[in-house]
Amino acid sequence: MDKFTIKAYSKKELALLYFPDSSPRTAVCHLMGWIRRCTTLWEVLQTTGYENTCKTFTPKQVRAIVEQLGEP
After folding, report:
1. Which of the 8 DSSP states describes residue 3?
2. Could you tell me which residues are beta bridge partners of residue 56?
3. Which DSSP category does 2 fall into?
4. Mind listing the pLDDT tens digit for each residue in 11-63?
5. At a CB cut-off of 8 Å and minimum separation 6, what does 69 contact?
6. Rg (Cα) of the chain, in Å, rounded?
7. Residue 1 has what pLDDT?
8. Residue 9, beta-bridge partner list
9. How far is CA 41 from CA 21, 47, 64, 66, 68, in A?
10. What are phi and psi of 23, to 5 degrees?
11. Residues 6 or more apart whose Cβ sits within 8 Å of residue 34
12. Each residue of 48-61: b (16+ CB within 10 Å) or e?
């Protein structure tokens, strides 16, 4: 597998890296469930401007996700 790169990702793109055997919709639901259960991560994302309607994660948000959840 290639080395994971911190960059902007769509929710679907990042979710499928974490859950490659899931459908895109299911992968996003699982990833967002993990994120919401990790209250520290959820708070950090909100301070970076994340809102539920966002379709992408910024590189800063991706870095926070990887720091809390590990690399996909």
Report:
1. P
2. 10
3. P
4. 999 999 999 999 999 999 999 999 999 999 999 999 999 998 999 999 999 99
5. 18, 34, 35, 38, 41
6. 11
7. 52
8. 57
9. 24, 10, 7, 10, 7
10. -70, 160
11. 18, 69
12. eebeeeeeebbebb
Indicate the DSSP class of residue 50: -
Indicate the helix (H) or strand (E) that contains 45.
Answer: helix 39-47
Q: Which of 17, 50, 51 is nearest to 31 (CA)?
A: 17
What's the length of the chain?
72
CA dihedral 69, 32, 37, 67 (to 10 degrees): 20
Q: Which of the 8 DSSP states describes residue 41? A: H
The SS3 assignment for 10 reads strand
